[in-house]
Amino acid sequence: MNRLTPVFFLALVTACASRGAITSADSQPGSDYAGPPGSGPDGGGVGSGATVTDPTEPVYPTAHPRIYLGANAARLKTSLAAHGPAATRFQRTVDAWIGGADLWGFQVWNAALAGQLTGLPRYCTAAVASVDAQVTAAEAAVAAGGVPVVAGDSYLDVGDDLGDLALTYDWCFDQVTAPQKTRWLAYADQAIANVWDHDHATWGGRAAPWSGWATDDPGDNYYYSFLRATMLVGLATKGEDPKADRWLDQFRTTKIEGELQPSFTADLVGGGSREGTGYGVAMKRLWELYDIWQATTGETLATQTLQTRASMMSFIHQTLPTLDRVAPTGDQSRDSTASFFDYHRQYLAELVALFPTDALASRAAYLLAHCSVPQMSQPFMAAYDFLYAPTVTPQPLTGMNTAYYAPGIGELYARSGWDTHATWVNLVAGPYTQSHAHQDQGALMLYKDGWLAYDAVIDSQSGLRQETSAHGLVRIDRGGAPIQQVASTTSKLVGLQQGPGWLYASADLTPAYAGDAAIGKVQRELVYLMPDVVVVYDRVTSDAATQQTWQLASPVRPAISGTSATFTTSGHALHVQRLAPAGATASAFAYTDDASGDFKGGFRLDETVAGGDLRYLHVLSIDGTATSATAQGDSGVTIVLADGRTAVVTFQRDTAGASLTLAGATTVLGAIVAPLAE
After folding, report:
1. What's the rounded Cα separation, in Å, for the pair 349 and 287?
2. Cβ count within 10 A of residue 199
3. Is the separation of the CB atoms in 639 and 536 below 8 Å?
4. Which of 10, 193, 320, 420 is most buried when burial is the number of CB atoms within 10 A of its CB?
5. Is residue 292 classed as helix, strand or coil in its secondary structure?
6. Cα 382 from Cα 101, distance rounded (Å)
């Protein structure tokens, strides 16, 4: 099933473009499919990784429709009867599909839902016919000695395909014939058995093993597709399919309780996804499963880890002040610019629905109401505006802390305020453990009405530029090539403090190089003086055979004058003043000159020096907010600010730590990660 079009190259937001090591998958005895027979709640804080328990046990409905509608049918029917905009768009989209419109990405369950809510047979007739065509095609492929489409791309689409089957089976139960039910379930059972027992997978009695990619990795986007197929088929067929209880146990006990919850509690403190913001938005599929499960069984899964609620917080901070894009961390294969899209809207709307009485949900509702996608832009996404129509009163983002640290994904965000013209700063320092993550440990990005310093992936055509040369960090070359940051490593934020008008962070990035003999130390510290000055200090030690380059990526070419460089874009000027090392050579690199031919624009400021034990001290200021910066050796600077204040920032030369004197008050900044207020 080829789901790619020239317009949506694309929805690879839930696909895997590059794959890392594969670990062992769960093993279960598989059934043998041979074709047709005979041939939402309050959450806790985000600071800790503690599990929040919910004593409610699941209660499984016995009468169709079982899934979701028991708790939601009345609300949705009322919305349809009132002809609200979201309900009308939903029904018009389904009508267009029934009428033969080629709607990219349309999911058959939309028609089954319309059938249940309206009582009009034509909707279920179309849904049943479509699912039966899926099963018939699978039977034909197996009969011909092959495997069905559902097995393609490591079973990536099994959640969508079997989700359509399960929801149509449940919501259109009376219109599915007994022979169809038998065939559908034989096909679904085999597909699910194959997913979880990849070594022993079979089709038509023939061995069809596959890699088992991500079957034991709750942090990978594929995992949520596998969960969707397993959960929905189990819920739809309990008491009618002998394997349904097995699928429910696999979903709830083996995978959610035994694997996902421990993993998220340990690894995703602070929310978000280690795959970055591109592939990480696939967690919307997980939020949807939480919602469906709760509406169906009464059991709350969303609060079993703090990661779910914390993801609402991290997403708000990942969204840039202009509310039209998100931080471009990790692969961005669907859209390299990381512009706000329907998937982001669904992600956040589902979280609001899961935590409707949480004060944070009202902030998220404000973002949804004021972002650049106030309603779904694509027909295939119309159902989610209908399902998650606003019920929470929006509250402005003002009043929230302007800084947030998500240690599980290693992201620090800070901004000068919550207005759309605020300055936004991002520092990366944490785990590098997913194949869609980048070699960006230590990377710095700045935004004000547009990108001043960014991730060069934005100007790539593939959205997959992972190498160190694409990010704002200190690059270390050996033999003319960058020394790579190594997967399965974890850099650390060792210092984090916030005060009135300032933020301090200290990161040890040395672990990212996995003990490479040429590298002794890579550390980055910054002091953000709000609103528009960032002092950056780097300690880098590498052997004499290497070359070090302090680099900053931007959409525009820097104007270089001696030890200063200026990027002018988006109506602002970012001034970069180098105070140390004195002997570095500054130059501008155009990404269009990259040998890959993948870049369509973008530039990089390079300040290059021979390897050794070096210190880099830079003052970055926007629109002249630092009127002067005077060095105190290679580790300190006195800055006169345009508002009349004077700041003195002095870093310890060899170990993490600094001091800040601002408006006459001195603060010692040490190796302590202080919790940030919410």
Report:
1. 10
2. 13
3. no
4. 320
5. helix
6. 15
- Dist CA 465 CA 469 (whole Å): 9
| Segments of 214-323 assigned E as strands | none
Instruction: Provide the pLDDT for residue 55.
Output: 59
Structural element, H or E, at residue 296 = helix 284-297
Per-residue model confidence (pLDDT) at position 663: 87
The CA-based dihedral angle spanning residues 301, 20, 335, 559, taken in that order and rounded to the nearest 10 degrees:
120
CA distances to 171, 213, 318, 460 from 355, in Å = 27, 32, 19, 37
Measured CA angle at 283 (ends 279, 284), to 5 deg: 110
DSSP, res 258: I
| 99 HSE (CA, 13 A, CB side) | 7
Closest listed residue to residue 427, CA positions, set 447, 417, 441, 409: 441
- Whether the CB-CB separation of 455 and 463 falls below 8 Å is answered with no
Tokens of 289: 């499963």
> What are 208's two structure tokens?
């069809």
Q: Which residue reads 């200021």 in tokens?
A: 621
Q: Which residue has the tokens 């947030």?
A: 404
Q: Which residue bears the tokens 């990219």?
A: 104
Half-sphere exposure of 376 (CA within 13 A, CB side): 24
Residue 429 corresponds to which amino acid? A
C-alpha to C-alpha distance for 389 and 371, rounded to whole angstroms: 15
Residues belonging to the chain: 678
Question: Which one, of 158, 217, 284, lies nearest residue 20 by Cα?
Answer: 217
- Rounded average pLDDT per 10-residue block, the chain, 678 residues: 28 34 30 38 35 71 98 98 96 98 97 98 98 98 98 98 98 98 98 98 98 98 98 98 98 98 98 98 98 98 97 98 98 97 98 98 98 97 97 96 98 98 98 98 98 98 97 97 98 98 98 98 98 98 98 98 97 98 97 97 98 98 98 97 97 97 95 95
113 Cβ neighbours under 8 A, 6+ residues apart: 76, 167, 171, 383
Q: What is the dihedral of CA 173, 178, 182, 185, to 10 degrees?
A: 0
Task: Please enumerate in sequence order all residues whose Cβ is within 8 A of that of 520, keeping only pairs 6 or more positions apart, or say none.
Answer: 510, 541, 542, 543, 613
Block residue for tokens 């969707």: 228
- Short-list 411, 50, 26, CA closest to 262: 50
3-state secondary structure of 324: coil
Which residues on adjacent β-strands are paired with residue 420? none
Tell me which DSSP letter residue 232 carries.
Answer: H
User: With the CA atoms of 593, 573, 322 and 446 taken in that order, what torsion angle do they form, in degrees rounded to the nearest 10?
Assistant: 60
CA distance 401 to 422: 13
Domains of the chain as residue ranges with CATH = 403-669 (2.70.98.70)
DSSP 8-class letter at 257: I
**Helix (H), strand (E) at residue 163:** helix 158-171
Residue 562 tokens, joined: 């001696």
Which 3-state string (H, E, C) describes 65-122? Answer: CCCCHHHHHHHHHHHHHCCCHHHHHHHHHHHHHHCCCCCCCCCCHHHHHHHHHHCCHH
